[in-house]
């Protein structure tokens, strides 16, 4: 629906589709995204000029959206220490333990404008199939003796879009360096050691992400190399970066 509508609207008009449930949710690389009641589920349409900081670095969009989801919670007063984090390239995690959201970006270039469809979903009030944001809030209240209220999917979708708009403005003005300090504040990979290719593969250390949004790893004896998300998968449970 949104894919058909996006070419019919004035360029300055925003467009978002929000679902209470999905029956055919999609993930990256053909994966299925389970979408029970309690998920925040939406697809957002934005336009990005080709000849702009973000237009020259389209892979960064998924990072900006993941960061916006995390900041939609952690920028609320009192909720700053809810342990919500970003995992490269497009996941939202509880600490480095469990996935509770993801981002899928599709882009179409028409003349000098990218039409971007951003699908994002994250668990707000559903404990299954993994864990949800309100579980983390309850856990935090129990540990810290606080009385933070549960959050709603509507509120967090609205906050995510608002934060994303600001992040895009900053990126367009200042480039990657304008947003990377905020991204690194919440990502799960700092200084992590990984294996490349398989369990017996060479050891590497995660350095950061490069100017185009690709993961940088420092392999022993070979220096720093960039890893592209479309050709590699990050297995957090096994600490592996493997070709797909």
Automatic annotation (TrEMBL):
Any one Gene Ontology cellular component term annotated for this protein: cytoplasm
Membership in a protein family: Belongs to the biotin--protein ligase family.
Keyword Zinc found: no
Annotated protein name in UniProt: Biotin--protein ligase
NCBIfam families: birA_ligase (TIGR00121)
A single GO molecular function term of this UniProt record: biotin--[biotin carboxyl-carrier protein] ligase activity
Highest taxon above the source species: Eukaryota
Residues annotated as transmembrane: none
Span of domain BPL/LPL catalytic: 1-172
InterPro entries, per database record: aa-tRNA-synth_II/BPL/LPL (IPR045864), Biotin_CoA_COase_ligase (IPR004408), BPL_C (IPR003142), BPL_LPL_catalytic (IPR004143)
